[in-house]
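Chapter summary example.
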Amino acid sequence: MSDRKKTYSIWFVAIVALFITCLITSNIIAVKLIEVFGFVVTAAIVIFPISYICGDVLTEVYGYRATKRVIWLGFFCNLLAVAAIAIAQGLPGASFWDGQGAYNRILGYTPRLLLASFLAYLIGEFTNAIVLAKLKVITGGRYLWMRTIGSTLVGQGLDSVVFVTIAFLGTIPFPGMGEAIVVQWLFKSTYEILATPLTYWVVAFLKDRERLDVYDRDLAVNPFKLEEDS
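The structure predicted for these 230 residues follows.
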């Protein structure tokens, strides 16, 4: 990625595309509940953690400033997808089409779940990026495994707490909410741990190809301020 010309390499674009695809796809497939090792989780568990891995790669190679833009881009892309689905849901179906009920059940979103999803995403992703960027400076770029896993434990933990609390407070007992938070957090974090060798390889590949290794020593964590790349 170049500096002032605001041009982006094919590798950066590919990581961003993967990040946004995982985000939007996970929100669509999250309606399905699956059982893994006796625990009930959403089907999004198979792909959503990849967005955190992409976030780790972006922050480690391109820095927090670039990652911040990508997080907001993902947010607005997801918002556009939700708006398009909602508009299509309200349009009158053809006289011979009998799939409205199925469409509503699978693609219909309640305002409460949307709020939970959007807030959990922003808080979790920004926390993950900020923690990883700060740890990189503190460790001098060493111990990548510790930094990616540590930032994910914090980010995914907050993501799970925010989503489950907003989505289910008052509808399921507190013990059930607590179990849901812990289960989601453990599954997502385990995903990150297992993907650590792949993360190492991708980071090394990109640093070599991009000739880039950003340290956010003057990190301004305000997610609403989109600074220029230094």
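To summarize the output: Residues 3 and 230 are 7 Å apart (CA to CA).
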